[in-house]
């Protein structure tokens, strides 16, 4: 019985049905934000919302029954459980803010859709590398803020009056939000200030940003290779399994060609 339940849960039609329920539920919660729609169809929207919640609860109970102890060892199952548990909490009195958290059910698409799950896994595996780059960025930002405060604090106190103000100004510059206006204001008193801003923008916006992208891309490639390795036969790396499969296909093609070239009994008797 457990095997049948597990096969049903892993079947394509069931996964598509769950995705449909998640999308419909997310759209329903979005429609509830409109006062006019809520006044006209509020009852229907609440029914659909509760029906989707019951479907999610039934799915989790079925997974618990089918997987038993393995259920808690899968982090995605724990992720789904937390999201559904938040929706089951009472939304009255002091906990009325929890009604807004029902939209978190839309995040269940991450655990249901394999491509989204792969991207999130890659991002999580890239966190250590991204933390190192963030530390480098914070160091550069701090050094540039100290320099900016000492160089331009007296001429432009609104932007570089003290260290916290300089940190915010350079963070704004790093995001590209109106940095040219800040630069022109400082250049009225220090014409060579453009050198400082250009070097800072090149380092933070281009170099560091590209480092972030490189780390994420590398993590996604490693995740893709790991999945290919898991799909290979036990004990064989992904590349070796692919090479063996190609050689096996070539051998089969050669055997088929030899069979076609060999004379059949009818042709042999006619030759005699």
Describe the fold and architecture.
The protein is an all-alpha fold. The chain has three domains: 2-112, Up-down Bundle (Four Helix Bundle (Hemerythrin (Met), subunit A)); 127-224, Orthogonal Bundle (Helix Hairpins), CATH 1.10.287.70; 232-261. Helices cover 81% and strands 0% of the residues. It is built from 14 helices and no strands. The protein has helices at residues 2-10, 12-31, 35-67, 70-73, 75-88, 108-112, 114-125, 127-152, 157-160, 163-175, 179-187, 193-231, 238-261, 265-271. The longest helix is centred in the C-terminal third of the chain and has 39 residues, at 193-231. The radius of gyration is 30 Å and the shape is flat. It starts with a helix and ends with a helix. The model is unreliable at 232-236 (pLDDT under 50).
């Amino acid at each position: 019985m457990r095997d049948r339940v597990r096969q049903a849960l892993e079947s394509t039609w069931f996964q598509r049905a769950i995705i449909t329920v998640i999308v419909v539920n997310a759209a329903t919660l979005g429609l509830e934000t409109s006062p006019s729609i809520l006044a006209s169809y509020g009852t229907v929207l609440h029914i659909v919302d509760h029906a989707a919640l019951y479907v999610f609860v039934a799915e989790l109970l079925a997974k618990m029954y089918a997987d038993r102890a393995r259920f808690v060892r899968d982090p995605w199952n724990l992720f789904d459980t937390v999201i559904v548990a938040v929706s089951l909490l009472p939304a009255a009195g002091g906990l009325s803010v929890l009604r807004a958290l029902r939209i978190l059910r839309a995040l269940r698409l991450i655990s249901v859709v394999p491509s989204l799950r792969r991207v999130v896994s890659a991002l999580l595996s890239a966190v250590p590398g991204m933390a190192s780059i963030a530390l480098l960025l914070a160091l550069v930002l701090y050094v540039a803020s100290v320099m900016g405060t000492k160089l331009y604090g007296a001429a432009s106190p609104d932007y570089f009056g003290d260290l916290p103000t300089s940190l915010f100004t350079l963070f704004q510059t790093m995001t590209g939000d109106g940095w040219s206006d800040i630069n022109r204001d400082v250049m009225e008193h220090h014409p060579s200030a453009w050198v400082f801003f250009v070097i800072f923008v090149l380092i933070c916006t281009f170099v560091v940003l590209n480092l972030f992208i490189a780390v994420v891309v590398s993590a996604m490639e490693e995740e893709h290779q790991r999945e290919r390795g898991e799909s290979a036969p036990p004990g064989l790396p992904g590349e070796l399994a692919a090479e063996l499969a190609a050689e096996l296909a070539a051998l089969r093609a050669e055997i088929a060609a030899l069979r076609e070239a060999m004379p059949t009994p009818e042709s042999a008797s006619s030759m005699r």
